[in-house]
Amino acid sequence: MAWYDVAVLALHFLLLSALCLFGLHRLSMLFRWFSHRNDQATPLSRYNDLPAMTVQIPVYNERYVAQRIIDAVAQLRYPQGKLQIQIVDDSTDSTYDAIAERVRHHQQQGVNIQHVHRTDRSGFKAGALKEAMEHASGEFIAIFDADFVPDPDILMDNVHYFTDPSLGMLQFRWEHLNRKNSQLTELQSIMLDAHFGLEQRIRSGSGLFLNFNGTAGIWRKETIYDAGNWSADTLTEDLDLSYRAQLKGWKMQYLNHVPCPAEVPSDINAFKSQQHRWAKGGVEVMMKMLGTVWKSPASLKHKLESTFHLSNNLAYLLLLIDTIFLLIPSIMVREQYQIEYIWWLDLPLLIASSLGHIIYLVFGQYALQRPMGKAFSNIPGLFLLGIQISFNNARAACEALFGHKTEFVRTPKSGELNEKQKTIKKIPRYKAVAPRGAIIEAILSVVFTVLLFWCVEKEIWFMLPFMTFLIIGYITTSVSSFIHYQRLKS
Predict the structure, then answer these.
(1) Which residues on adjacent β-strands are paired with residue 253?
(2) N or C: which terminus of the chain has fewer CB atoms within 10 Å of its end residue's CB?
(3) In which domain, by residue range, is 61 found?
């Protein structure tokens, strides 16, 4: 066998093995969950005199939700004179006027609320938070994104965890206001449920490094400064700061029993934009921090878990490379040397990599005591959604690996409410942004259609379901992206 034929097979199985490891890591969380399913952190003691608290609401052109979050935080129950609210506003559209009106209204009611507006969006969200910190009077900083609606007692009930002087950050579990508004919002909710109900819960319970999710949490101000403050050199400033703080010795706590409701993106382009930022930022933080983690005195368990945590966004890139560039050459090599039987090596690796992730997502519903019938019925949709964002996230990983810098793109939110309340029917009129990658996704659907017929001709039957899902996933996401783009333009 020629060296290049060996290289094709070796690289193909190397990438499949890496994907298998990611899948097995997801599966491991199911088993680890049973060791922590009854964990519930409790404060060491309670404050007799509550500490000063600053609430920061970062906003950028979010006119459909800005007033709602301002009204919500104005209702927070905390001792008068101890609570400061900052609306950290970078808006350049009518959101500014809407915020100014609500801030004036609540100031007249005696609420200590300020409108902190920047005309220069340098550093994006991280830059805005860093500048607002200079005027924050609180010992602790609570952060809620504009689409969140925190419970009025969330600060009063949970500030007492900081009686532990080593605790630097407290993260609450996300809930989803518009979960049942569409299949897309339902599937996103399932994905986030698994992250919080399994991943964050296990990392927190095991004392492993976990991350602040950018919102719905409270920071000790000293921790932020000690870790080097907010930095805009990655798109996930929350993940970056979390690792820097934990490497400084600060503890972080996730509270699974404290929900904080918010919206998930209501259309495919907004969802893909959010996923692109998270995936690219995650790889940027991996490149920035993973070497530091391995050089640190942290345990081997911490280092291995951090490696999976920070590199998991590379999985989409590995899958796309293998599928587009190595699958057909590896089939041709097998045929040439009559070693088709090694397909039996592909099958368990494919099952472990794909089903491992799906089982993890479905089990997340069990962990949060949600209806399992609904979870199982969504399995085909979860497969498709994973394919629909695969090129988007693979492109994000490539941009990060090659050092291509892009701005922090705010995920547009529509102000939808849950199914028991009035839901906005009109499409929010955010600026239409051309769906990057939709043309390539359409081309990929054609490529995989050709490969499907090729597999039929070669009687490689077990590849047909995989190819079918790829075709459906890419064509539907491409069409959906263009349809929504045209609606916003019209």
Answers:
(1) 170
(2) C
(3) 42-264
